[in-house]
Amino acid sequence: MMYDSDERRWHAVANREKAADGSFYYGVITTGVFCRPGCSSRLPNRANVEYFASCKEAQSAGYRACRKCNPTGNSKNEQNEQKIIQACRDIEQSDRPPKLKDLADAVGMSPYHFHRLFTNLVGVTPKKYASGHQARRFKDSLKASESITDAIYNAGFSSSSGVYSRNRDRLAMKPGDYRAGGAGITLHYGLAECEFGWLIVAATDRGVCAIEFGDDPALLPQQVQDRFPGAHLQHAGSDFVRLLREVVRLINTPHSSCTLPLDIQGTAFQQQVWDVLRQIKPGETLSYTEVARRIGNPKAVRAVASACAANKLAVVIPCHRVISKDGRPGGYRWGAERKRRLLDQEREEA
Length: 350
Ligand SMILES: [Zn+2]
Fold this sequence. Notes:
The chain is an alpha/beta fold. It has helices at about 5-15, 55-60, 75-95, 100-105, 110-120, 125-145, 150-155, 160-170, 175-180, 220-225, 240-250, 270-280, 290-295, 300-310, 335-350; strands spanning about 25-30, 35, 50, 65, 185-195, 195-205, 210-215, 230-235, 285, 320-325. Helices cover about 45% and strands about 15% of the residues. Zinc ion binds next to loops.
């Protein structure tokens, strides 16, 4: 609404339009006082009113500010806006999402009024704003090249399994991103050595998405890049140590349970196969045929083998525990010899 004519300005004054506050001021010749259009004081005679674009103009024309609507101070709208902005800062700076009542108390509003005003001005509820901010902070802290586990804890989540399930929808790569080979996402990676050779561990902000074996550490980043051609790979630095140690521990002691936050990326069919694989205990094996039978698709033996080869999480998704029907180890993405040694170790420990 533009208040660009006397007609419109008078209309706003006569109707005490709060929305016009800040757009112009009016002075009352007979009292020498100037007001906001929304002022609740008695309506003056239209003939005695003149308009000003700013308080300064009104003051230099000899008017003094009305005590009721306090035109030189902040308007109610501006005050409310400032309170909501203050609440946003409070949310951003707190480690846990603040309670609605605490936020409202801090700015002197009722929780109901605060909630309505916040939602109107910000566009989302305080709760949504808080969880959105927490997710964003989670991402930002990863950008600072921290380990995924540190980032998870620093973002204020109580456990890494919690962050995995809670961020699943919000931070997940969409199916389209997956098809595009991780286009636009950043993968942090680190290298480590274990009994079975060199390892690369790569993680998205959801969790570990790749664990691969290799003989030459210099070639391992490319191996991950081939799996996620569109992703940006970034070395995670020394902060990744904790995560690497956890992976090495898992590989060296296969009977320990996996507490890693995982970001398992694959097609629906691959996920189905990998789910079956994760149920095979160390020291046990299944044939490709048996896996196909367990997913309810006994003819899909070849597709099962492909899904095993497409596994990006060595040992965590134990594709090495799937062997040929005749008992031979069969192929392994990271070398048949490595597969045999992994199986030997698990049998010995069992
Ligand atoms: Zn007034």
